[in-house]
Amino acid sequence: MIRVLIADDHTILRQGLVSILEKDDECVVVGEAANGLEALEKAQELSPQIAVIDISMPELNGMEVVKRIHQKLPQCKVLVLTMHEEEEYVIHMVRAGASGYLLKDSASEELIQAVKALASGKSYFSQYAAQVLANQYSQPEEWSDPYKNLTKREREVFHLVVDGKTTKEIARVLDISVKTAENHRGKVLEKLGVSNSAELVKYAAQHKLLL
């Protein structure tokens, strides 16, 4: 049986995914998560073979969830299931460690096909995502990575600021001091050439990074 973890903050959608997967004799859903932090906890606790992860989730966005699962649980393959079809999301998720990328308007049969592909050690990308990756491979200079000058920690802070977190809240989420959080925030603003949180949110919107 293919052990699957599902992480999506929309209960009805999550329940629908469980129903689809468990109708297949080769799949069993071992856990569900309603936010990013819960997804990480469940992944470490349940050791699923496949984690189906949404991009836009509270507490911790899907991009950071994918990165951390890829780093801490390399045996767990991540399938991103999202409404975002912009090329920036596809490329960032693949760079974060995703093995598959599927849009939420895909047919249920394609979801099962993708899960089975990842479980067998292969990758699975929807037709659109595969075309984005092919274009990126053939013309890498045409896409500029807005994260290229940010460290891993700075990217975490970037998304938390965009999510509206205060410096104290960022410090609590990342388990660091307020002073350290403020330093990271300052470096993010400096590297991206913006002067405050409002401009940072605008930057995120312009680069399609509002997860």
UniProtKB/TrEMBL annotation:
Q: Which residues carry this modification: 4-aspartylphosphate?
A: D54
Domain Response regulatory: start-end pairs:
3-119
Q: Where is the HTH luxR-type domain?
A: 143-208
SMART domains membership: HTH_LUXR, REC
User: Which keywords, in A-to-Z order, does the entry hold?
Assistant: DNA-binding, Phosphoprotein, Transcription, Transcription regulation
Gene Ontology biological-process entries: phosphorelay signal transduction system; regulation of DNA-templated transcription
* GO MF entry, a single one: DNA binding
InterPro entries, alphabetized: CheY-like_superfamily, NreC/VraR/RcsB-like_REC, Sig_transdc_resp-reg_C-effctor, Sig_transdc_resp-reg_receiver, Tscrpt_reg_LuxR_C, WalR-like
Which protein are we looking at?
LuxR family transcriptional regulator
Lineage runs: Bacteria, Pseudomonadati, Pseudomonadota, Gammaproteobacteria, Kangiellales
